[in-house]
UniProtKB/TrEMBL annotation:
It comes from Pseudomonas denitrificans. HAMAP family: OM_assembly_BamD. Gene3D superfamilies: Tetratricopeptide repeat domain. Part of the Bam complex. Part of the outer membrane protein assembly complex, which is involved in assembly and insertion of beta-barrel proteins into the outer membrane. It is a lipid-anchor. Keywords: Cell outer membrane, Lipoprotein, Membrane, Palmitate, Signal. This is Outer membrane protein assembly factor BamD. InterPro entries: BamD, BamD-like, TPR-like_helical_dom_sf.
Length: 341
């Protein structure tokens, strides 16, 4: 990691810590004043202050005209304040209390977004982290939450974006399973590797990882001496994925060295320390496709579906639609690479 990255991360962490406390909410503010000030904070991207005012509004006027709207906007404020757990908790509470609310689909959507962005935190913005190798817990949660939205509200304005994210998340989960399969190959756990490859093939059809799953099966079966299974898997791989990284000029090339070919340091540390860098073809097609898909999809999300562009808050009685403020970025946003958006 470069020193400038460390310095930048440390500076941003310090600024975040200093600004996270927020201002004290005046106890004499009326319900409408609290709501108006919370809206101003949201528009100014002062999400910490907005959270404080929305919580105060709900606690002081639990049966007021803005109570439900405050609960809905609190989800968004927590999400933008980089507090995914608080956002998910707020969304779950809103869904439980207002299952028939006209904007409950927005709560489901923000709940899925909170889990979706949970792994893409501060470090992921500055460091070249491979998301396919990280713990998939948040990805599974996000997939399930978007699936609930699509299932319960198929005609929601957020359903198309949720479906697109589900495709990405499914590919991400499949690529993670491929990495686990290669981990088993490195540890000579060939039965486990074959089972993991078969799991990818059977459960993640139509994802880029299927070819890599077949390659894992071929290699594991070859190591186990199960030539018939290895040959049938290889034929399937050649027929359907001729460009897979494991095929060189039509011939299968194992991607993991056998135990005897590893260095003494790798053997002594059970593979925890490898002396040689992985060859270029060690990057799976699944992980490359997933990363590219995320980058492309992030650019293609319709602007009107992004939470920061929600502008439907109305201040009339009994009307409750979300307002996410302006989409204009300030000079501070550019200087901090969008960290505090």
């Amino acid at each position: 990691m470069q020193v400038k990255h460390l310095l930048l991360i440390a500076t941003l962490a310090f600024v975040t810590a200093c600004s996270s406390k927020g201002e004290k909410v005046d106890e004499n503010l009326s319900e409408s004043q609290l709501y108006q000030q919370a809206q101003e904070d949201l528009n100014n991207k002062s999400y910490t202050n907005a959270v404080a005012k929305l919580k105060a509004l709900e606690s002081r006027y639990p049966f007021g005209r803005y109570a439900e709207q405050a609960q809905l906007e609190l989800i968004y404020a927590n999400y933008k304040n980089m507090e995914p757990e608080a956002a998910r908790a707020s969304a779950e509470r809103f869904i439980r209390l207002h299952p028939q609310h006209p904007n409950v689909d927005y709560a489901y959507y923000l709940k899925g977004l909170a889990s979706f962005d949970q792994d893409r935190g501060l470090l992921a913005r500055f460091l070249p982290l491979d998301m396919t190798k990280r713990d998939p817990g948040a990805a599974r949660d996000s997939f399930n939450e978007f699936a609930q939205l699509v299932s319960r509200y198929p005609n929601s304005r957020y359903a198309p974006d949720a479906k697109a994210r589900m495709i990405y998340l499914r590919n991400l989960l499949a690529a993670y399973e491929v990495h686990v399969g290669h981990y088993y190959l490195k540890r000579q756990a060939y039965v486990a590797a074959a089972n993991r490859g078969r799991y990818v093939v059977e459960n993640f059809q139509e994802t880029p990882a299927v070819g890599d799953g077949l390659a894992i099966m071929v290699e594991a079966y070859q190591r186990l001496g199960l030539n018939d299974l290895a040959d049938s898997s290889l034929e399937t791989l050649k027929a359907n994925y001729p460009d897979n990284a494991s095929l060189k000029d039509g011939q299968f090339v194992p991607r993991e060295d056998e135990a005897d070919n590893r260095s003494w340091l790798a053997k002594a540390t059970l593979g925890l320390i490898e002396t040689n860098d992985a060859p270029p073809h060690m990057e799976t097609q699944a992980s490359k496709d997933v990363i590219k898909q995320y980058e492309d999809a992030e650019q293609q999300i319709p602007a009107e579906l992004k939470p920061e562009n929600q502008s439907e808050v109305q201040e009339e009685q009994h009307e409750s639609e979300g307002n996410a403020g302006s989409s204009d970025r300030s000079w501070f946003s550019y200087m901090t690479f969008g960290i505090f958006d």
